[in-house]
Every structure is written in structure tokens, then in C-alpha cells.
Amino acid sequence: QQQVKQSPQSLIVQKGGIPIINCAYENTAFDYFPWYQQFPGKGPALLIAIRPDVSEKKEGRFTISFNKSAKQFSLHIMDSQPGDSATYFCAASGRETSGSRLTFGEGTQLTVNP
Amino acid sequence: GAVVSQHPSRVICKSGTSVKIECRSLDFQATTMFWYRQFPKQSLMLMATSNEGSKATYEQGVEKDKFLINHASLTLSTLTVTSAHPEDSSFYICSALTGKYYGYTFGSGTRLTVV
Do the beta carbons of residue A90 and residue A30 sit within 8 Å? Predict the structure, then answer.
């Protein structure tokens, strides 16, 4: 019940394309869903996060879509750039989960070709 | 925003020695700190959760005598890898809880290589 399933494992798009990364969860106690971007040799950095009371959130070129009934959420990157090439992780947490720990998805390696 | 400073960024040590990794919260008090381990092309694996002034809570399968965590102050948490072996070589990352329930700021990570 603590798992967060992420797909695809890797993704290649052309510059300007809109990569979409999907995540699904089981634990209905989760109520915080962040996305992180990680470059090689660096720690993860928060991109955007959503709570389950909204179905969509936009911050700049990044959009989260959230489907509470399906227990799924996704990240869309508009007008992708080569500098967006990185590993992206979805995650989930909740005040009811032990110690507010984050449960991470498996990660998606995104490559944006020039 | 909240910043967590993690040092060193890279360390190479000989097998059998101990290595200490420090994480400091800058401009905020970190009552809860998380320590992760990440292998190449894999996700972050939670090793332990530490609360200031309390003993750390370790995840199943993580040897608490090998990975010593100290969270003696609200701005400093340390992870000491004792008697390191080549299989302990990995990327170690700390994260501080910045809100009461949510908000996580990650350190920049430490690449540990045991030779």
C-alpha cells in the first residue's frame, strides 16, 4: 500500500515536445503529491506539488494533473527544452503516514533532444 | 527558501574506515531529517528518519550499528558509515522536513566510494 508506481522508465522527446510522466498510488491516506527533478550527482529539487483537493496545478511550464478517483497523477512539461533532460521522480506523503515520510516512484529518465 | 547544506559532496575512503556526512539546515530548524541512499539509475531508498533529540528510526534491513545517525541539534544531522566496505559505496542524500507535515528540502548529496 505504500508503493507509488511510475511510468515510463525512460522518455525521449524533441525540443518543444510535451513529455508526460504518470504515477499511480494505492494508499488513500496520501494527501501530498510532489514531483522532483534530479540532475546527475545532485539531490532532488522540488518542481511542483499538489494536494488532492484540486485536479490540476500549473507552475510555469510544469503542470500536474490529479485524478483522485483513479488514484493517479501525472506531470506534463510544456515546451520542453534540452535543459529539462534529467530524472524525474513522483512521490507521495500524508500526515497519516508514518513520520510524514515520502514514498518515491521509480523515476523517469527524460531526454530532450535539440 | 529553505536550504539544506550537505558535506562532503564526494568522499573516497579505505575499506574498514568510518565516514561522517553532515547535513545542516540553513535559516530554519529541522526537527525531522530523512536519510536516503540511492544506487545508480534507481530511486531514493529511505534509510532512516531522525527527530531532534531522539533516536533515529531505521527502515527494515538497514543496520543501525553500521549507519549511525545523530540529530543532536535543530540545525545539524549527521550520518556516520562505520567500518565501510565497497558495497556501501553509494549516493547518500539527506532531506529536512520544513513544514509540520509536508515540505521537504533535500541536500545536494554525498558520493561515497569505498576502496
Answer: no
